[in-house]
Amino acid sequence: MTVKPLLGEFFCILLLLHVWNAHALSQTIRIGSRPSSLALVQAESVAAALRLATGISTEIIHIASSGEVRGHASQDVPLPLSPPDFVGTIDDAVRSGAVDVGVHSLKDIPPQSRWAAFGHLTIGCHLPRADPSDVLLGGFQSIYDLPEKARVGSASMRRQAQLLHLRSDIECINLRGNVHARIDALKAGEVDALILARAGLDRLGVDIGLDTKKKKCDGKEIIAGTILSSQIMLPGCCQGIVAVVCRSNDKETRSLLQVIDDRDARIAAEAERAVLNAVDGSSPWEGRPPTAAFMSRMLEGGESEGGWKLDALLARPDGSKIVRKSVMYSSKCEPGEAQEMGRELGDQLLKMAGSRFFT
Fold first, then answer.
1. Which of 160, 206, 260, 265 is deepest in the core (most CB within 10 A)?
2. How far apart are CA 254 and CA 81, in angstroms?
């Protein structure tokens, strides 16, 4: 072995990296996003991460989805019984080449068997997960503090089922719309309380506090409410994770996205979506059954770097019955192992529920 060949290889690698970086800097990644305030915040976080990590230029292109609601609206049935499509038009734009990538809340991507773009598109990266908790807005410290027969706004069947399991007297209002529109409905007295994802509130700069006299703090709007623990309200599959989809055969874009992929978020996403994929189709209606799954790090020595815990449940829409189970895994969990763990847990939930669970 001589020094000269090694130096030659080293300079070849440097040259290739220089050429790749120069090519990347000459590109502009076109990012498809829904036009809502929350969606655009998420798209900009993807754009910023790409610019910082790769130096590439980005452009955000607004694409309206068929699931958009202007203002707020109520409907007769929860979302899974009449599922809106928040991803289809963006996925179509990615497939056609109108944009290079699409940004989604991962919880909005349908289960694999009903994701129309599956096979054509792939999830190229996951941003670090935001707080996946649900929040009860309205000034109540817990679900048990709600008045009798309180009207609670949420079109999520998962939330409704867990809520009714704890308080069968509550009236669930299928309230849809963007975050601020639903908060306006609460302020207008159309509902007594509201359940929203904390991740969306955080991204929009809305803070949660029990002091209803305060309206703003450090420029943030303050809404009276309380964070619901996962023991009370288990989060939806992949809640709090922003995902970026791209064409499966676009190797260059996939390589760029891998640079900003968060490993822990990917592991959690693989496990939770595997649970959803396993139980999907078990209900007699069109959409997904009331399912929740949350993969989290267990604390070890005060740090969240221990093993993994996957907690999941399957519920009847009226909350009259819930089956729930959790499993543990080592800290060295790989994405493929997480997916298998989720599939097995989903199968166990179906076995616990039995064939007549929804009848």
1. 160
2. 34
